Predict the 3D structure of the following.
Amino acid sequence: MGEIMEFFANITTLQIIGLALLAAGAVLSFTAKRIAKHFHYRNADFVTKLLGLGIVIAGFLMIFI
């Protein structure tokens, strides 16, 4: 429990950006089917999910590295 509180006590701007990317990527992944309806190519849903996953991974890397 102390490690979690220490993380938030010493949070940097880069980690805040990472948290924002993490949240944005999660929203993009979960709403991929609805977003993909606006595109007219075959695998738009899959590509949108991969894009969201890439943003989530970038957020994790910014937070923990």
The helical segments are 2-9, 13-30, 32-36, 44-64. The mean pLDDT is 88. The chain is about 80% helix and 0% strand. The CA atoms of residues 8 and 15 lie 10 Å apart.
